[in-house]
Design brief:
Strand content: 15-25%
Mean pLDDT: 95
Number of helices: 13
Structural class: alpha/beta
Length: 458
Amino acid sequence: MASFELIIVGGGLAGMCAAVEAGEQGASVLLLEKKDELGGSTVLSSGYMAFANTDMQKNAGIIDSTESLIDDMIEVGGGVNNLKLVEVYGERQLETYQWLVDHGVEFRSLEAVSGHSVPRGHIIDPHQAIQTLNLRVKKLPNVTIVLNAEVKRLLKNTDGRIEQVIYEHEGKEQKALATKGIILTSGGFSKSEELLGQFAPQLKGALRIGGAGNQGDGIKMAWEHGAWVQDLPYLNGTYGFHPTAAGVVKSQGLAFYKGAIMVNQLGKRFVNESISYKLLGKVAFEQPDGITYQIWDQTVMDKSVFDDPLYDLELLKRRRLLYKAETLDELADCIDVPVEVLEETISKYNHGVKSGEEPDFGRKSLTHNYGNPTPIEKAPFYAFESTVAMLATYAGIAVNDSAQVINPFGEAIQGLFAAGEVTGGFHGAGYMTGSSLGKAAVFGRIAVQEALAHLPVK
């Protein structure tokens, strides 16, 4: 049986950060990825990472702080986040940002995104990030990556420490030993109808667009050995996808964070559009027939951001996914909502924006506490049919601030660590854009550092 100091299960961002960190520390590492390529759900993401007080922000004249980042995370998470995890993220986030930069990960631009009080959505190309980290791994002879290797179970030794994995590769069952620790970075369960049916039956009918390998394997394997789970009651879909996103092209637009409103098929608003798009997804999915539209005007259209995964509204137009009309009457006819109701909805909204007292849902910003709403009155007008998708689960096994998997009593399960989407407790009841990839990088490295610092229990 092959022996390594660390075994990493999953080759998304958390796993690749862990592999590079461990390799550079000189540890012998085996990374097992069940699919035929690296990336997991990371490469399906929008590519935002939540960092504060970076050089990019300073160059843009944005004043930010770790304290503000932490406060936003707790507020967006409804105060039910694991505070210690959030605090550790705050302590390590800027260092992690610089570590990624130093390793060649390219941050393209900066945007205001869901849940942030200032622009701190640092955008990467997820493919470039994974490929860059993989190139670094290839220069580390002590790190071995095996693709098409599906981990089936974890095994304990006679002392109760988890130290072996059973995996299938090339049709054969194999075992491998980890002397310092096993790190689960295997993603969530957005493609497991079994687990979604158990924990999120309310999302039946939502698009399923997560990573193909996200079947909840890591959660099940950890659960078998006593792992606690967190955040499952807060599972929600992600709002803003076009109904065709279940296909090859996963078109998404969040025009409401640039000033659009959301209406249902009755032509009525139903929510404060500035809140987290996970919470928006919950409310939108409850609308009649689950049909909703984002409505905006040319003022918002002019805020389109070229090549941005969430804000390239012109790309949606080029893909012929938008309805466009010179009047609200024509737009209402295009999307088959009552003309009088849509006009009244927008008139009331515009009056609220101009008076500073939006009456129905209290919207005062574009996203969270940032940006000022603008009236929807400059032709032409646009509509984007939007639905809810299960892209990532943001809930899973519980970990402590050392990335050790813990049992229901808060005790560490010896030999077992976890990072990334497989974990719960960090996000709480909501979701701040960029915090998922952010926590993957931060805690992927922490898991390695803690595993190598702890001697095996005898």
